[in-house]
Amino acid sequence: MIKLAKFPRDFVWGTATSSYQIEGAVNEDGRTPSIWDTFSKTEGKTYKGHTGDVACDHYHRYKEDVEILKEIGVKAYRFSIAWPRIFPEEGKYNPKGMDFYKKLIDELQKRDIVPAATIYHWDLPQWAYDKGGGWLNRESIKWYVEYATKLFEELGDAIPLWITHNEPWCSSILSYGIGEHAPGHKNYREALIAAHHILLSHGEAVKAFREMNIKGSKIGITLNLTPAYPASEKEEDKLAAQYADGFANRWFLDPIFKGNYPEDMMELYSKIIGEFDFIKEGDLETISVPIDFLGVNYYTRSIVKYDEDSMLKAENVPGPGKRTEMGWEISPESLYDLLKRLDREYTKLPMYITENGAAFKDEVTEDGRVHDDERIEYIKEHLKAAAKFIGEGGNLKGYFVWSLMDNFEWAHGYSKRFGIVYVDYTTQKRILKDSALWYKEVILDDGIED
Ligand SMILES: OC[C@@H]1[C@@H](O)[C@H](O)[C@@H](O)c2[nH]c(CCc3ccccc3)c[n+]21
């Protein structure tokens, strides 16, 4: 068998999840509601009113789930910590909430699996939202730094990879601007204020992390990045792609790596939101403090044509590729383009693909298995793109499949399955899909065979 793509021996093969999507136990051991508890219980916000009340019951089944990680043979496991378990009220630390993560990390360490912890994956404590709108309130930075510092104190060097935020674009634009995610606001000025405070909280947490000198641990941030392509060679379509790229990518990449917001987007946005009076002296220096790695969440690309009437002067047009159950075009070559662009224009730091994966119609067949060939194909094609980038000297250090297991897919509830492990929500039974068995072989071989 010829090897299609070979990876370095120390390549970090992983899978990823997040707290609200898998844990359940929303009232246990002192946890108080997050904005996602509130949002999912609000009429019409999620598919059939699905909530994370039980999810995959991972809070009680974590030992079994870590055993599954071992069976698949992952080198690392990316999970997130639920802020409302750690600080159920402002300033009130909850050691029982921390205990869960200490037990989880202990199970991982026993099996030589590297923990990669995301500090914030969208489950803002409701008490923080009740005080001036959560990320809209500049005080959120102080609350976040207190939370992150407690994590560094209690878990510090047990976590080699610390990720400050998962996808600031989603926590701000999708949540305060578009309204699809909690807290469901539809105000673009609010979205940019939230984005600014989230980025500031990232910078302040990195500074706190540096002061604590946690040996052997690295800190970074995870951004969801969507390459934008013009629908034609027309100048106006190229302009549309420039704005779509600014909207999705440069608004976050530039402050973090260049210490400024992109000029073209500032100009475009100023017509919509007025003054950028929420940007204070020194903020961009804080946001752009040096980090150790960049986490990249990649799923798909966008193709846009010029649209005079839209805010971004851009309208999405469907691509020619096959689509996943989310309706996202499958475009592995765009992952290669993205990685090359990041390397060329932004950073030579180590990068990790902290999420890549797909939802497909999964069903358990007579043989009790899930033959998810489309998901194997999706992951294989994206790994080939990653290998090509590494082969050209790209500093890509690892790949985390989204997701370890089927889970609460936000506004889509449990209707979309991204896992390489199937979850039967009525019995909580886990079934390794064919993609998990395939991924196990890829990890053993450090490479892909066709
Ligand atoms: O949608 C699949 C996953 C989520 O389950 C993860 O929690 C989240 O980190 C994540 N980000 C993306 C790409 C950005 C996006 C998120 C939600 C909706 C649309 C696009 C896809 N995913």
From TrEMBL:
Superkingdom of source: Bacteria
EC id: 3.2.1.21
Sorted UniProt keywords: Carbohydrate metabolism, Cellulose degradation, Glycosidase, Hydrolase, Polysaccharide degradation
Enzyme class: hydrolase
Known catalytic reactions: Hydrolysis of terminal, non-reducing beta-D-glucosyl residues with release of beta-D-glucose
Active-site feature positions: 167 (proton donor), 355 (nucleophile)
Family: Belongs to the glycosyl hydrolase 1 family.
Gene name of the record: cglT
Protein name: beta-glucosidase
Binding site for substrate: 21, 121, 166, 299, 402, 409-410
InterPro entries, per the entry: GH, GH_1_N_CS, Glyco_hydro_1, Glyco_hydro_1_AS, Glyco_hydro_1_beta-glucosidase
Gene Ontology BP annotations: cellulose catabolic process
